[in-house]
Write a structure and sequence with these properties.
Length: 124
Amino acid sequence: MRRSLMAMALFVVSCARVATQGPETYFRYAMETADAPPPPHVHLEGEPRSIVPPGTQVQVVQNANHDLFRDGMDWYVTDDGYWYTSRDLAMPFTVVDVRMVPPAILSLPSEYWKHRKRGTGRIS
């Protein structure tokens, strides 16, 4: 009986901590999309120039004003802790939950980022 009361108390304390942590994040990016700002204006100097990091199929665009990636047919850009995606660079980007961003992009080493993710849900 005593053991089950202790377990219940630990469970309640654990739940209380989770409830007070603020916006939920994943890989330190915001998961909430309802309050996302409008997509950033992606500017390229000429045609996209990209590199493919070893062991991935991700294209990292080097001549963009934001962290811009391509995985398969989809483009991904991040700004202020939010992610946006588009099928075509000429089309508007739409906000996407960070859990929809390919893990290969999220796990790229820091040398492939302009603004490496830091903190709890925002990019520095």
